[in-house]
Amino acid sequence: MTVGIPTYYGGQGLAEAAKSILASKGIEKFRFIVTVDGNPLKDDIRQQFIDLGVEVIENEERGGQVARIKQLIALCDTDILVLTQDDIRFQSDTLAKILRGFENHPETTMIGARMLPVPAKTFLEKVVERGAQLTHRIGDLWQQGDNYLLASGRCLAFRSFMAKKLVIPEEVINSDAYLYFENKKNDGAFLALRDAIVFNKSPQKIQEHIKQNKKFEYSQAELEKYLDGINLKSEYMIPRLIVIRALLSEFIAHPFFF
Hints:
Blueprint: E1 2-7, H1 12-22, E2 31-37, H2 43-52, E3 55-59, H3 65-75, E4 80-84, E5 88-90, H4 94-104, E6 110-117, H5 123-141, E7 155-159, H6 160-163, H7 175-185, E8 190-200, H8 206-214, H9 219-224, H10 232-236, H11 240-253
Parallel strand pairs: 1-2, 1-4, 2-3, 6-8
Antiparallel strand pairs: 4-7, 5-8, 6-7
Helix pairs in contact: 1-2, 5-11
């Protein structure tokens, strides 16, 4: 297995993400690569990676996240490639559960881990947490979990032979959904793992939350430019009954923050 992180900021948060990944249990030694996108690492961060045994590739020119993802795919020489991000924390058994998912489902070519917010403390964090849980409720009910909602780029894993088949335009914004549909276009099978968990810190300001989500507002229209042969209208059309069921469940469970 190879674990790869594309990054631009490369600060202490990245080092903490790496430490959480290296603390994984129940797996053999794996290759770990960080590709830095045109923004040199600080000396102390670079030294931490050297001490941790992480491969670091510092690209002088900025190419964007997709360019670094493609670089990681090209560098992968193992059976499995796990792509994650620099602000994520892994549970100690997440990688082991991903590997077990591939072993138990030989037809699976792509796995999505369950991305959860770091346990909420502030009011806004608790509101965002409910939104994340609502997405999971809908995703779990819709097409037995085989849908783009559960393909979070916070942690996606591929059989490397499939990853190397994927044609990924570097200008695509919603790369999470694009990778899900491109895998499907290449006759791959997707599996969402509820118990393979990674944590992400929630936005601390409402403006930050809106900014993070704004880029996905026109996802369907954007991806239709790149994904000929897939009916994205049907892929984005969530059955109304599922939405109502998920809304009611979340409202009953957490009415105030909902």
